[in-house]
Write a structure and sequence with these properties.
The chain has a single domain, classed as Gcn5-related N-acetyltransferase (GNAT) (Aminopeptidase), CATH 3.40.630.30. It contains two helices and no strands.
Length: about 70
């Protein structure tokens, strides 16, 4: 699952949890495994994912590459 987010003006109302459960339910219903990713600095997302029962499976390194202009 990628790009799951709630606008800051609407956080702490359970909307992220509701959205997550809906999308995760659709993925699970297809027989696929649900997994998430987040930047290590995104502590609020990680806290939400842990609250929903997920645990850290592995760390990844990401490099952003942009063309020279």
């Amino acid at each position: 699952m990628s790009g799951l987010c709630t606008h800051p003006d609407f956080q702490k109302r359970g909307l992220g949890t509701l959205l997550f459960r809906h999308v995760a339910g659709e993925i699970s219903a297809r027989g696929d495994e649900v997994y998430l990713h987040a930047y290590a600095s995104n502590t609020s997302a990680i806290a939400l994912y842990e609250h929903l029962g997920f645990r850290l499976r592995s760390r990844m390194n990401v490099k952003i590459v942009q063309p020279r202009v």
